[in-house]
């Protein structure tokens, strides 16, 4: 017991441990609300300061984007959710292909085993908790299925697109924490993606019922989808029904100050992930992640 406590203390005193511990202490919601107000400000001085400082810090070029000048954006939010130029991201047209929903990095990718999704090396979390399936009615449906977790860094394009053709039938807002979702936090905070605020988007597809989860994070000022508009935060689960058909590559939603998108596919899809799609792989929206084998 003493050895275990000593090991925990040693981990806490590392740089990564201190970064993780600090996130438990800060007022996550208040910090995100304050960041949200500043990010939405159209005051010319506030906007310019945030946009120019951020672009310089992260080396952001507007070459791939529809608007080419930093002064063209109404607010930092407008800049952060900037739209791509036409045809900047070709959508892979492989038959039965599943494409990346966003620009970013593969955090983890694989198959669902014993109801668990891999979060980081040695750390799993429950698919039922991720989907807020409180009655555990649907989670068994995804047993043996597949998942892909894409982390969006601050410099990335921050709109999320459809990884497959499908009809949006339900959105489920789930309140929660707002931990950072980078690799350090994923390795140190148990059940990270099932604890953070998130929006669960459920689709009817030719592969069965599939899900895209938009996960909030530290300083994320909001999540928006084409079906719901910007989500109003609350302390309770909110479920809405929809009948919105979307094609692979269509915009699904966006993050106001980035986060993570998780694709969850049922076993009936029989997804085979591409060999080069592994932890740490850099991906772009529309890039092929894998192919479904419905047979």
Structure description:
The structure is a single chain. The protein is of the alpha+beta class. It folds into two domains: about 1-80, no CATH class; about 95-290. It has eight helices and 17 strands. It has helices at about 1-10, 15-25, 30-40, 45-55, 75-80, 125-130, 185-190, 190-195, and strands at about 95-100, 105-110, 115-120, 125, 145-150, 160, 165-175, 200-205, 210-215, 220-225, 230, 240-245, 250-255, 260-265, 270-275, 280-285, 290. The strands form four sheets. Strands 12-7-8-9-14-5-2-16 form an eight-stranded antiparallel β-sheet, with no helix packed on it. Strands 6-13-10-11 form a four-stranded antiparallel β-sheet, with no helix packed on it. A three-stranded antiparallel β-sheet has the order 1-17-15, with no helix packed on it. It starts with a helix and ends with a strand. This is Phosphatidylserine decarboxylase proenzyme. Its main location: membrane. Its cofactor is pyruvate.
How would you summarize this macromolecular structure in one to three sentences?
Helix content is 23%, strand content 31%. It has 2 domains: 79 residues, no CATH class; 196 residues. The chain contains 8 helices and 17 strands.
């Amino acid at each position: 017991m003493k050895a275990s406590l000593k090991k925990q203390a040693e981990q806490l005193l590392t740089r990564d441990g201190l970064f993780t511990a600090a996130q438990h202490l800060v007022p996550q919601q208040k910090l995100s609300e304050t960041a949200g107000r500043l990010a939405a400000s159209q005051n010319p001085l506030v906007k310019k300061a945030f946009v120019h400082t951020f672009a310089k810090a992260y080396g952001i070029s507007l070459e791939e984007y529809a608007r080419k000048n930093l002064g063209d954006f109404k607010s930092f939010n407008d800049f952060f959710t900037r739209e791509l130029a036409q045809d900047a991201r070709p959508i892979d047209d492989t038959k039965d292909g599943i494409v990346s929903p966003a620009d970013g990095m593969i955090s983890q990718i694989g198959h669902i085993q014993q109801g668990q999704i891999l979060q980081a090396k040695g750390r799993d979390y429950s698919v039922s908790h991720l989907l807020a399936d409180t009655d555990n009615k649907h989670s068994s449906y995804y047993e043996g299925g597949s998942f892909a977790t894409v982390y969006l860094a601050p410099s990335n394009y921050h709109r999320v697109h459809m990884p497959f053709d499908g009809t949006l039938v339900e959105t489920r807002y789930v309140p929660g924490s707002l931990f950072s979702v980078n690799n350090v936090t994923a390795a140190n905070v148990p059940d990270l993606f099932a604890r953070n605020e998130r929006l669960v988007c459920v689709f009817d597809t030719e592969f069965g019922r599939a899900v895209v989860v938009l996960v909030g994070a530290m300083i994320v000022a909001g999540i928006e989808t084409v079906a719901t508009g910007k989500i109003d935060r609350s302390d309770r689960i909110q479920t809405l029904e929809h009948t919105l058909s979307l094609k692979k590559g269509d915009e699904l939603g966006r993050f106001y100050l980035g986060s993570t998108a998780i694709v969850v596919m049922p076993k009936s899809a029989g997804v085979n992930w591409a060999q080069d799609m592994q932890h740490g792989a850099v991906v772009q929206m529309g890039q092929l992640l894998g192919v479904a084998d419905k047979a």
